[in-house]
Amino acid sequence: MSAYVVSVLTEGAIFGIMALGLNVIWGWSGDFDLAYYGYVAIGAYMTLVLTIGAPTPPAQYILGLQLPYPLAVVGAIATSMAVGLVVGLIALRHLRGIYFSIVTLGAVYVMYVMAGQYVPLVDGYNGLSGLFDPMGDWFGLDYQSYQYFFLGLSLVCFVLVFLFTARISGSRFGMALRTLREDERAAAAFGRDIYRLKLKGYVLGAGLAGFAGALFAAYLSAFNPSAWSPVEVIVLYSAVLVGGRGNIWGVALGVLIMGMLVQESTRFLPMLPGLGQLNTLHPQVLLALRGVVIGLVLVLFLRFRPQGLLPERRYVDREPVAPASMPAT
Amino acid sequence: MHEALLTLGFGIVTAAILALSAVAFTLEYGVTNVANVSHGEILTVSAYVAYLVHSRTGSAVAAAIGAAVAGGLVALAMYMSVIGPFIRFGASPTVVFIATLGISFMIQNFLVIGFGAENVAYTIDPGAPQHLGPFLLTPLDEQIVISAAAITLGLYVIVSRTKFGKALRAVSQNRELARVTGINATQVAAATFVLAGMIAGYAGFILAESVGTFNPYFGFSFFLITLTASVAGGLGKPFGTVAGAVMVGLILEFAGNYITASYNLAFAFAILAIVILVRPRGLFTNARRTVFE
Amino acid sequence: MIANRGHAGIWRLMASSIVVAFVLAACGGSSSPTSSGKQPSGPVTMGVLSCFTGTLASLGQAMLQGSQIAQKAINDAGGILGQQLNITHADTQCDEADAVPAVRQLLAANQVVGIIGPETQEISAVAPIVTSAKIPTQFQGGSTLFDKNTNQYLWRDSPSDSQLGVAMALYAYNKGYRNAALVFYSDIAAQTFPPPITKTFEKLGGKIAISITIAPDQTDYKAQMQQVIATNPDVIFTQTDAATAAVMFKNFKDLDNLAIPFVGTDVTGGDDYLKAITYQVAHDHLISVYGTSVSGAAADEFNKDFAAQFGASNQPLANANYAYDAVISQALAIDKANSIAGADINAAMMSVTTPPGTQCYTYASCLSLIKAGTEINYDGASGPLDYNQFHNVFGPYAAFQQDPGTGQQVQVQLLSAAELAKATP
What is the pTM of this model? Predict the structure, then answer.
């Protein structure tokens, strides 16, 4: 199997984990959280500072331990959850809707600026690198075989997260989250502690983001602020939207379509006759065109199919009820 | 002290541009309850139009008019094609917010296709700097501040004295009630967007000429600061916004000088977050309208 | 309930994916054997791996431009090992996360034998991949982290900022400036300059009055520029991107009418930067210091080829000459090694670019020397390309001034390698 395909699938699996986590916060809790990718970045950075050892000057960064990879992953998840807790405590208290989104955007921007500008933290714009083939030596794998191993590992992790979120979906906690989303006042009337529930969901989502970030760091072997590109963020959110917010199968489908096909489309379109020539003369056209397509898809879906391709399954009871034609938020 | 006053002078110019952009954004929000994330793109497109007009005609005045017209058209298009239909469809503000994010992304990429992603140099001779009291400003700076003040004044007259202004205020406060009294809310909103777009277009023009360069992403970065100013001033209240813009512009200038400019936008967001958390209605309002949910 | 029904299916899914994972790992997949002495069976492809979108898109364009000029020169001279050269490209979006699939695509789908690029921020993620695939990669990026590079497959044909910093300080000192200000933007590419400039300038006897970092793409820097002016420097060392420069120069014009001269880098000598501040301003106030080959013959050839392809009124983009040299040197290495296997090309790279050998400056002339069995030493458009053991280049630098009439950069002073070595702290 071509190394390129392996790499795209691996990235897809990691992306899938990110999307599932975002689904908890946006799909079930109903909050459009713009800080989400920040938790992914935190997970990636933490994994690196826990595995690449002490900094060699002039590089500077915190910690710099050399723990085994699985331990570092745990550390990464814990850190993301901690930061998510802090942001959630502030943002979820009284804010909903656009104000919540703006404050989370502010939070992620501050994280981004700190990571990029405050050098002693994670070496600023240089970023961190050096995480080569974690756990590869346990199994005595050479570089090529390791790619397959890591693909398998990422897929297994994705399936685990999928199972996990499936359980949550059907659990009382998951249902409570969705109730909150539909109607907060009614939920409050039923004695739900809105704040605590949302916070739990938020921290859970952040933890999944951290997990994805840890895998992402291993995939890239490095991480720096250039990896926080807005294009990726928009693709992530549109994957959740297009696939079906609130439905984990939908999210998986969304990642397949938006995350993999659309993202990689620009690598293959030039192979079509005519486009190849255009691509050589004006390389940015096809890539910008992809951006236009992504934006267009986002708007069209929001207007005509906001529930996504695979809408959330409504847990209805036997009594006839007016059809819910308008999806929430 | 001298340096502080100089900084103040520079800050006022930034604040003037910011005020125009923020006021336009607030107008858009006022009549639709929608935070238009693609607002920054109005400035960007207008800057490109101004550049094209200027290269053809060699006249800065023509460029300014071209920018304003372009801005009005773009804003109208945004309203007619996306924002208006979404509102009629009954979408929640968050949904429209995300949709405008999508539009923003599309416009930026269209501009990349059309003009390339690199920077375009837009130079107009600003004239020699003069000492105006304790400040150091060029004639261009003075023009910017004066025109910003004039536009704000004009806006005040329109909003408070004309029939249109009354309708605008009515729709901003309560769309349904306005409808009941016979006001065509959609038309008023569309007209407001045109007005806001023209102001934003002009802001894009002066921002581009004062900075001397721009690229497809330039409006969006300015938008983040615009958002801060608008929220600080009170979303939906045009004149609180002007005060908010002045405040934010000055804070950023001072923070950039005395602390460090690298953290500029982080500062803007810190301000934003604090304002939202502490006084979400804005610092200069006593509006009855609460946090928009 | 739905959850229960789904459970069985999900367990099966999980079990099968674990099995698949192990099977895949066991299969391993065919590691592309880079056996020696491989002859090309068709056109030879090299890949440009760089940013083609985003604000640094001009970098990718420049790399592609330089590569295309080299491609034409090579194909006109008969190609590589008798085959035509194709240049393909992949976009990293200046983003590590996209760089990984991009480089894999170049390797797998395009079967490139050599890579030009990427940039400093992507190199850490790309390095392990190209190393295991044994593909020589010539990247451009001044980060001083690479001064002690031990990766055999990575070559850097642009000078380290540590070297360029020395050259800038030396030039300024020679001009008589003693009090300097540093204004660099926060980007990783520019932040590596202040230390070598400072050390060299102070070693020579000058003084650094102030060193500030500015954030890119802001609308106004007057407050900080005023701080700089207040320290009364004789010269300002600078590198920023074109957009930031435009604002900065404007601010200085407003504040002190550009009274203080600027000394810049290869970035400030690029066409987009010069256009952003205008050619006239550049001529009057800016000197750009960067690498050059001693005789300039290769640079002349490069400019000639550029004019033939793109028109005489245009100027090559900044750094295009590095890509040109990268392609030419890789092509010559293939010709010398008589093989397109990565390991062979890599082994031959040193011998075609460094002494001993007859100096040659164009692909055509170098190729005929190789065919005649002579050792060559290709000196490129961007510098003599004499790699040291860390695969870094050094060599003479020169100060360039913009000629507003022709739109070209004109060399005004040469700084020899010997002088630079002496000035290096």
Answer: 0.82
